[in-house]
Amino acid sequence: MLLTTKAIFTLIVLFFIALELNFLWLFGGMPSMKEARNPKLSVPTQVLTEDLQVLGQFYLENRNPVDFSEIDSLTIDALIATEDIRFYQHNGLDLRSLPGMFFSTLTGDTRGGSTINQQAVKNIYKTRRDRSQGLLGYIPVVRTIIAKLKEWDVAIKMDFFFTKNEILALYLNAVDFGDTTYGIKLASKHFFSKEPKDLSLHESALLIGILKGTSYYSPKRHPERALDRRNVVLSQMLRYGKINQEQYDKALQQPLGLKLTEVVKEHSKAPYFRTMLRPVLEKWCDENGYNLYTDGLKVYTTINYTMQEMAEKAVEEHLVELQKLFVAEQGSYKFWFDRQIAKEKAEYKREHPKEKELPLMPAEKTLNSLIENSEVYKRLKSSGLNDSQIRVKMAEPHATRILTHRGEKEITISAIDSIKTVAQFLQAGLLSVDASNMHVKAWVGGSNFDYFKYDHVAQAKRQVGSAFKPIVYASAIENGIDKCTLVVDEPFSIKTVINGESANWEPKNSSGKFSYAPMPMRTALGRSVNSVAIRMLQSVGVDKVIETAKKLGISSNLDANLSLALGTSDISLEELARAYVPFVNLGQGGDLVILTKIENKEGEVVYESETKMEQLLEPHTAYEMSFLLRGSVEVGGGTSRRLYSYGVAEGNEIGGKTGTTNDYRDGWFMGITPGLVTGVWVGCEDNRIHFTNANGQGGRAALPIFGRYMKAVYADKNTQYKKGKFPKPEDYTESVYCYEPEVISDSLQFVMDSLARDSARLLIDPIQNRRLDSIRISL
């Protein structure tokens, strides 16, 4: 018995109700009435600097929506003539095209017969994705038919809620044009470097033609196919009267005419900063109901675009010069690994003259590990070659592109030598912070983000060497030791435990010499005298210095022994920069501030940061510390005297502290200027690879980056940072300078006589033979 028309209609209604409700999980989810009324395009989040320059974007689909009025009419005509000529006559579903649609679906063409409404639904609501499928979605043809039916349903709803022009704009903003480019605005910019309203006829036809198959008709990869498809679109426009014969003939003669602009690969500034920012923003979005990748937020950061450029340029320019010195240091070996392996073998032979066969040296083991973990080695191994065959293959020179500090260049080199080259590639970190509000102005986490993702500002923790000494001195002043204290620079010995064995620790100055004279704190810090710093730490107490360090923002574990004064603890550049801020801001500091505000897609402010400064040091202590740190520039023999060569010291109160770790593994410079604290670290990713001469010292490896950077900052009239003086507490009435007695012939009696005349000054007792069993030194 045939079903009546009423029964058929009832079944259809029941079916669509079941479709809407996902009855028995058969059909999968579909857009609700609310979602159909308010479709949400995936819009990237923009990251902006304080001077409103775009640093980058976070997105799943890279697009920038435009209004209908911003789209050229020829683009609209091309779309309608090619995709849906009856667009203005139907209500979202074109009944005339249904037979063709069913035939296309059965033959595998998922676009055939779809109206612009349906295609908009597919692109906006992703109805073809797995998570939109129900149990019936596991049946291939049924899966496509159900997706089509859902698109019918929502397409009709959209036609009810939106005007035809609004639907066209939604579609052109949503659709994928290939090359990870979504929407007509970015497609116009990417392929023709134009705005959508400025496209010519043949350009509009090409973009619409791409939509039939973004890979197959890609004008970049398959220009002949793209040209043929463009001409099909032009013929459709002529057929339906959207253009005349003259327009058609003229457009047909035009070449593809691509003027590509890269809109996906970011060559923007501060990539390490943006990478650090991502999890911070993800957490905030999760807590506040936003999606970082789709909700079109605008994130305003504290980064100053100009200063970031200056910082990146300073790092690049100095590393170019320093890398040459590092390569030159290897001599005829050229590579650090080759030189080190030869050195280790020679030492082993001296120690074991009777042994004929040498074991693998430590440097050889490290190099082997790098080789075996390389992509080249893994690829050759998967092809069936054994280890010996792989190494022969990897030793063969071939043309390739290799990284330099100026970018990539084409050279002929073997894969093994390429690995050695990358291993000895110098890295740097730079962090510049406004001391008045803790705003981060520049953040350089490494030498090249495309190759090295590890951030040497926030992620890396390295020994800081003498850059830790100012914290010892700050703790001393904070705990009552006068800034004019004299300490005798002399050798001493401590009975302790070194590497598990009883031994004497006899710390040396970096010069290997002692003056045997009493030395003012400013001179001792300025010249980075180890003996004075250790004795100052001993006088204050390790626990109190660690307490000061924690208060200043250092959260890393610190060695609770006298080696702390020499910076043997691993600390990040981010922590150390925070710790220096109170020295130039009357004792105030706090957490780093990286964001100022966040706006939603409608331009409403949904987050605004607050500056929370804390009094971490007494104002007098902070001011005196700025005076002591100036000693490295102003005192004869100071480790920062080189700053005069950059023109940043004249007429300016500027100070800093170098830091150099054992065997020149790390070079540091922490610079302070009125209103700004900037820290720099330089070294290799693997600290086993390092300079073996003074070029690895903080004063040569890191200080020049600070000097170049500050020279550029001061030269730019648009930056707010000028030469000047450090802030002084209003109630600080005494002279910051100290009376320095002239010591003749190292006469300690002369010093004692001068101290008798000035009781405010101390002479810290020697610590000869003092036993400190808790100390552990790795030498």
UniProtKB/TrEMBL annotation:
GO biological process, one term: cell wall organization
SUPFAM superfamilies given in the database record: beta-lactamase/transpeptidase-like (SSF56601), Lysozyme-like (SSF53955)
Key word Cell inner membrane present: no
Domain called Glycosyl transferase family: residue spans: 54-237
Domain Penicillin-binding protein transpeptidase, residue spans: 433-675
Family: In the C-terminal section; belongs to the transpeptidase family. In the N-terminal section; belongs to the glycosyltransferase 51 family.
Designated name of the protein: Uncharacterized protein
Organism of this sequence: Jiulongibacter sediminis
